[in-house]
Amino acid sequence: MIPFQVSISKGWLHDFGGFSFTESYYFDPYHRRKADLLIDQYLLDTFKDLPIYNFESNLVQKDHVRPNFLRIGAIQPNLILGKILGANFIFPEAADADIDRSPLKHIKSAAELPSIDFLLENPIVKKFNNQLVSAKSDTSIIRIPPFFWDLSGRATIHGILTTGHKLVGEDFFLMMYDNPQLAHIILSWISNAYMALIQHYASMSDMTVTSVHIGECSGCLVSLEAFKEFAQRYIEVFGQKWPLRVHSCGFSDHLLASLTSIGNLCSLDVGSNTSVQRIRQTLGSKFLIEVAPPVEILLEGSKTEECIDWITTTVDENARGPMEIKCHLEPGYSLDHIRLIHQYIQIHGA
User: Fold this and answer.
1) How far, in Å, CA of 204 to CA of 189, rounded?
2) Please, what is the angle between helix 77-84 and helix 160-168, to 10°?
3) How many CA atoms lie within 13 A of 203 on its CB side?
4) Nearest to 7 by CA among 41, 43, 54
């Protein structure tokens, strides 16, 4: 059976469940734990026929989740780097947290980047350190540190290119061509920063890193050649140490020659009608492919036939290899279409 897992957005939980996500949700782990338990029960009561969970989008593995988690620093990885570099967090009550600016927007040289040792002394890093230490004596909970979301030991980061995009802004794509040397300096710093933070928090939490999820959300915006130069080479730095789960958000057929050649790749996570058939033919019958339905078939008002066509084609192209299907429920999505996908998999996903 093809596993199907649905996570849920903060926007949906706010609009339909009345939940709000303030600063305390992200920085008071015991407040978050209480809120998450309420949300968990709400979802159980509301969705008796669907596998919908209060998970961060595409990052959590339900078989490695326990009800007594205490999530510390559970905020998107690139936002933590943004805060370290001087941006401020913002907390829309009805949406995910964000930062207020791109802190490297005006960077001119490597001298403007902090050393990795200085990074580990940053107040936000120390804040999470103190929370981890304080919670260690509480035997009623399991600590989950920053950059981790469950007990599997899988660390999670944004792709290095994607993080460059977040920290510099749209001008990063121009920098790749106008000043590639500076672009690589920034990407190398990001890679080193993520590596240091993963190892730091794993050590503090007695967590063994078993793999790394790298979410290259912006990768689909660049050419194959640019992806190889500015994304793949940095992804493979992590692959030298751990097995990789690599994610590409948008339509990514033009990147498959690179994505499928990444060293130590254990899973490829794609969406937006990226070709499952090409991945299966290239990486073989035993390779795990993870897919998300394209947004256009999930929207309210979209045609049921298009949803049926997508799930039928996806299962057929998979050719009975290992596969998981995941989606993230947002306001404006059709629950009927999510149910349709779930029901189809139950019947045809063996």
Assistant:
1) 22
2) 50
3) 6
4) 54
Burial 231-245 (b: 16+ CB within 10 A, else e): bbebbeebbeebebb
* Nearest by Cα to 175 from 109, 92, 249: 109
The mean pLDDT value for 43-65 works out to: 96
Helix or strand run (H / E) with residue 164: helix 160-168
Report, in this order, helix, strand and coil percent for the chain, each rounded to 5: 50, 15, 35
Nearest to 115 by CA among 46, 196, 204, 10: 196
Q: Tell me the C-alpha distance between 106 and 157, whole Å.
A: 24
Q: Which two tokens stand for residue 319?
A: 């050719």
Q: How confident is the model at residue 349 (pLDDT cuts 50, 70, 90)?
A: confident
Strands (E), the chain: 4-8, 52-53, 69-71, 89-90, 98-99, 142-144, 154-158, 211-215, 244-248, 265-270, 288-291, 323-329
Q: Give the pair of three-digit tokens for residue 20.
A: 């709000």
Q: Is 213 left (phi over 0), alpha (psi -120 to 50) or beta?
A: beta
Assign 267 to helix, strand or coil.
Answer: strand
Predicted TM-score (pTM) of this structure: 0.97
Helix axes 171-178, 160-168, angle to 10 degrees: 110
Q: Which of 300, 306, 312, 311 is nearest to 336 (CA)?
A: 300
Q: What is the DSSP string of 85-113?
A: TT--EE--TTS--EESS-TTTT--SGGGS
Contact 287, 259 (CB under 8 A): no
Q: What distance in Å separates the CA atoms of residue 280 and residue 331, rounded to the nearest whole number?
A: 32
How many Å separate Cα 54 from the centre of its chain?
14
> Is residue 350 pLDDT above 70, yes or no?
no
Asked if residues 129 and 45 have their Cβ atoms less than 8 Å apart, the reply is no
Q: Domains (ranges, CATH) in the chain?
A: 4-348 (3.20.20.210)
